[in-house]
C-alpha cells in the first residue's frame, strides 16, 4: 500500500470523526442567553476538522506532501504487532488473574526469544516482584494479586 | 529586581530541605539516564513518571519532573559524542562534530565542553527566568480573557506552524486535540459533552493517560521496527579543551546561550531548532568553516549550550503566561494541574513558595549535573550499554502500572493503549503529536476565555480587535498564519523543522 493511499484512509477516518462529532454537537445549545453556549465550540471545531480532512484527502490524492515515513513490513511489522499483542495479553490477564500472573506471563513472552527460557522466566518473576514491592510499599498503589478468576 | 533576589533566597530555603534536594537529585539522575538511553526521550520520560509523583508534595513533584527535563538535555550528548547515536533529538546535531572528535581521541574534550556549555546556558536561562518571569507575569496579571484567548491562539498556531512538515496535518492534529479536550463536563455551562453516557468519560480524558500512550507506547513501537544499535563506547580521558581553543569555545557558548534563550521564548521553536540554528551560526561566523564536520569544538559547544539555554527559557512563558511552548512543557503543565496549581500570571503571587523553590532547585540541579557530568562521565557511558531488549519491556511495565496507579482503573489502561496505537499511526502519517497534546491541554481554557470574552463584549467577535494588546497579538497570529499558508503553497517548508518531540 502506498503512503498516499494510507493518507487517504486516514483522511476519511478524520472526516468521519468530524462528521460524527458535528452531528453530536448539534445536541448541545449553540447559543444561550449569555452568549455562545456549550455547543458553540464543538460545532466550529468539528466543522473546521471536516474542512481540513477534505483538504488532507485532496493533498494525498494529488500526491503532494505525502508522509515520507515507511510503514513496517515483514519482520518489523511482526515485531510491532507482537508488542501490541503481548500488551493485550497483559491487560486481559491482569483483569482475570491479577498483577503477579499477568506481569510474569507478559515479561516472559517478550523475553522468550532473547534469552534462554529459564533466564527469561527468572528475569520476569524478579522484575514483576520488584515492581510489586515498589508500587505497593513505596508508592502506596495497590496492585491486585487476584482477578476475576480467583 | 531586588524583590526577585529576596524571593529567590527564600526559594532556596524551600529547595534546600533534604527531601527536595533528594527529589532534585533523583530528577536530574533520571533525566541523565533518559537522555542517555536512545529510544526514550524527555517527553515520554516525564509523562511516564507523572504517576509516581502523585503522593508527593506539589513542589517536590515539579522539582523532580523539571529535573528530568533539563537533565535529559545533558544526558543526550553523551551517546551522540561517544557512539554517534543521539540519546534525544536535540543532540542529533552534536553527532556531527562530537563523534568526529571521538574518532580523533578527543571524546573527553567534547563531553567536557558540552557539560560546561550546558551548565552556562542552563544557569543563564534560569537567571533570566528569575528576573523576567515575575515582570512578565505582573504584566500578564492585567490581561483579561480576550488577551489570554489571543495569546493561546498565537501559541497554538506557532506550534502548528513550526512543527511538522505540513500545515494541514499540523492543523488536523491541533483540532483533534481541541475536540478531545471537549470530552467531559463543560466548565462554563456544566453540560456533559461527548461522554456517550459513560461515567468514565464524565471527568474528561485524563491527560497523563493520553500522554503516556501517545508518547510512551508509540515510541516503543517505533523503536521495535529498527532498534538502535549502540556500539561499545571508547575510553574517555582529558575533559578540557586546549588553551588556544578556550576563546573560540567560550564565544560559541555565549552565542549558543543567546540563541537558546530567544528561541526558548517562542512557542513551537523546539530545542532541536535551537541547536541546529546554533550550529549553522557557528559555521557562518567561523574563520575556517571547513573545520566543521571534522571535529570542530565550536560545533559541539554552541548547539549543546543552545539546547540547555532553550530548556530553561522555555519555562518563562509557562510560568508567567501558562503557555507551554513544547510537548514536554505541556506534560509539565499537565503535572501542575494535577497537583492543583494553575500556571499563569497568578502563580508568582499565589504560590510564591512553590515557584521560587522550583527556580532555586534549578540552580542546584544544574550544579549537580555539572558535577555528575565532568568527573563521572565515564560511568554514564556504561548506561548506554544496557541492552534495549531488556529495557523496553520494563518501560512498558512502568507505563502500564503508572497508568493503572492514576485511578486504580483498567479503563485508563485500555484507553492509554488505544492512544498508544493512535500515536504510532500518527507518527507514521507524519501528523505531529505535539500539536495535539498542546491544544488538548489548552482546549478548555481556550474555550472558556473565548466565551468570557464574548460575554463581556458588546461588539461580538470584534472585542479581540478593540483592545490594544489583544489586537497586536491577533495581528501577529494572522501574519504567522498567512506566512504558513504561503510557505505551504510555495512548498518552502524545510525539513529542518521536522516534528521532534522535545
Automatic annotation (TrEMBL), chain B:
Q: Where is the DUF112 domain?
A: 21-437
Specify whether Cell inner membrane is a keyword of the entry: no
N-terminal signal peptide = none
Q: Which InterPro entries does the UniProt entry name for this protein?
A: DUF112_TM (IPR002823)
Domain of life of the source:
Bacteria
Membrane found in the keyword field: yes
Q: Which residues cross the membrane?
A: 20-40, 47-70, 110-136, 148-164, 170-189, 259-281, 318-342, 354-374, 386-404, 461-486
Q: Which UniProt keywords apply?
A: Membrane, Transmembrane, Transmembrane helix
Kindly give the Pfam families that the UniProt entry links to this protein. TctA
Protein name stated in the entry = Tripartite tricarboxylate transporter permease
Amino acid at each position: 500500500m502506498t503512503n498516499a493511499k494510507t493518507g487517504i484512509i486516514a483522511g476519511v477516518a478524520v472526516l468521519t470523526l468530524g462528521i460524527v462529532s458535528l452531528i453530536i454537537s448539534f445536541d448541545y445549545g449553540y447559543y444561550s442567553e449569555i452568549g455562545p453556549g456549550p455547543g458553540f465550540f464543538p460545532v466550529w471545531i468539528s466543522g473546521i476538522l471536516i474542512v481540513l480532512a477534505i483538504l488532507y484527502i485532496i493533498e494525498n490524492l494529488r500526491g503532494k506532501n505525502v508522509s515520507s515515513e515507511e510503514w513496517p513490513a515483514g519482520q518489523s511489522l511482526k515485531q510491532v504487532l507482537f508488542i501490541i499483542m503481548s500488551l493485550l495479553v497483559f491487560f486481559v490477564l491482569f483483569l482475570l488473574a491479577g498483577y503477579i500472573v499477568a506481569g510474569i506471563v507478559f515479561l516472559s513472552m517478550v523475553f522468550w526469544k532473547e534469552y534462554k527460557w529459564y533466564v527469561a522466566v527468572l528475569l520476569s518473576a524478579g522484575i514483576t516482584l520488584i515492581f510489586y514491592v515498589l508500587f505497593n510499599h513505596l508508592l502506596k498503589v495497590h496492585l491486585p494479586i487476584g482477578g476475576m478468576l480467583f | 529586581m531586588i524583590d526577585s533576589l529576596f524571593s529567590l533566597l527564600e526559594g532556596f530555603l524551600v529547595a534546600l530541605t533534604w527531601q527536595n534536594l533528594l527529589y532534585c537529585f533523583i530528577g536530574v539522575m533520571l533525566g541523565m539516564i533518559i537522555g542517555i538511553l536512545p529510544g526514550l526521550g524527555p517527553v515520554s520520560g516525564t509523562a511516564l513518571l507523572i504517576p509516581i509523583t502523585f503522593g508527593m508534595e506539589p513542589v517536590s513533584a515539579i522539582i523532580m519532573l523539571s529535573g528530568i527535563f533539563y537533565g535529559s538535555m545533558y544526558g543526550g550528548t553523551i551517546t551522540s559524542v561517544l557512539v554517534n547515536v543521539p540519546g534525544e533529538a536535540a543532540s542529533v546535531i552534536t553527532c556531527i562534530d562530537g563523534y568526529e572528535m571521538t574518532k580523533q581521541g578527543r571524546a573527553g574534550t567534547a563531553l567536557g565542553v558540552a557539560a560546561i556549555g550546558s551548565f552556562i546556558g542552563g544557569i543563564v536561562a534560569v537567571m533570566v527566568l528569575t528576573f523576567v518571569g515575575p515582570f512578565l507575569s505582573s504584566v500578564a496579571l492585567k490581561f483579561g480573557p480576550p488577551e489570554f484567548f489571543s495569546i493561546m491562539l498565537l501559541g497554538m498556531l506557532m506550534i502548528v506552524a513550526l512543527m511538522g512538515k505540513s500545515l494541514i496535518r499540523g492543523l488536523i492534529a491541533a483540532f483533534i486535540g481541541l475536540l478531545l479536550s471537549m470530552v467531559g463536563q463543560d466548565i462554563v455551562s456544566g453540560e456533559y459533552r461527548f461522554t456517550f453516557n459513560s461515567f468514565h468519560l464524565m471527568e474528561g480524558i485524563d491527560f497523563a493517560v493520553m500522554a503516556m500512550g501517545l508518547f510512551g507506547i508509540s515510541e516503543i513501537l517505533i523503536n521495535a521496527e529498527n532498534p538502535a544499535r549502540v556500539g561499545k563506547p571508547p575510553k574517555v580521558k582529558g575533559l578540557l579543551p586546549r588553551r588556544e581553543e578556550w576563546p573560540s569555545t567560550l564565544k560559541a557558548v555565549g552565542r549558543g546561550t543567546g540563541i537558546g534563550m530567544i528561541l526558548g521564548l517562542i512557542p513551537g521553536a523546539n530545542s532541536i531548532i535551537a541547536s541546529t540554528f546554533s550550529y549553522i551560526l557557528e559555521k557562518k561566523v567561523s574563520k575556517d568553516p571547513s573545520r566543521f564536520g571534522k571535529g570542530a569544538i565550536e560545533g559541539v559547544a554552541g548547539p549543546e549550550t543552545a539546547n540547555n539555554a532553550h530548556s530553561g527559557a522555555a519555562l518563562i512563558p509557562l510560568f508567567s503566561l501558562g503557555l507551554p511552548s513544547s510537548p514536554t512543557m505541556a506534560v509539565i503543565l499537565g503535572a501542575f494541574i494535577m497537583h492543583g496549581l494553575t500556571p499563569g500570571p497568578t502563580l508568582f503571587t499565589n504560590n510564591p513558595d512553590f515557584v521560587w523553590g522550583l527556580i532555586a532547585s534549578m540552580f542546584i540541579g544544574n550544579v549537580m549535573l555539572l558535577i555528575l557530568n565532568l568527573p563521572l562521565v565515564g560511568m554514564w557511558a556504561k548506561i548506554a550499554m544496557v541492552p534495549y531488549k531488556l529495557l523496553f519491556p520494563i518501560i512498558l511495565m512502568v507505563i502500564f502500572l503508572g497508568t493503572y496507579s492514576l485511578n486504580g482503573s483498567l479503563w485508563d489502561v485500555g484507553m492509554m493503549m488505544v492512544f498508544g496505537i493512535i500515536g504510532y499511526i500518527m507518527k507514521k502519517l507524519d501528523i505531529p503529536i505535539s500539536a495535539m497534546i498542546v491544544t488538548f491541554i489548552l482546549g478548555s481554557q481556550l474555550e472558556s476565555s473565548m466565551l468570557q470574552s464574548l460575554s463581556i463584549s458588546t461588539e461580538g467577535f470584534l472585542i479581540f480587535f478593540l483592545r490594544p494588546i489583544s489586537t497586536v497579538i491577533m495581528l501577529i497570529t494572522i501574519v504567522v498564519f498567512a506566512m504558513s499558508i504561503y510557505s505551504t503553497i510555495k512548498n518552502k517548508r524545510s525539513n529542518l523543522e521536522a516534528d521532534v518531540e522535545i
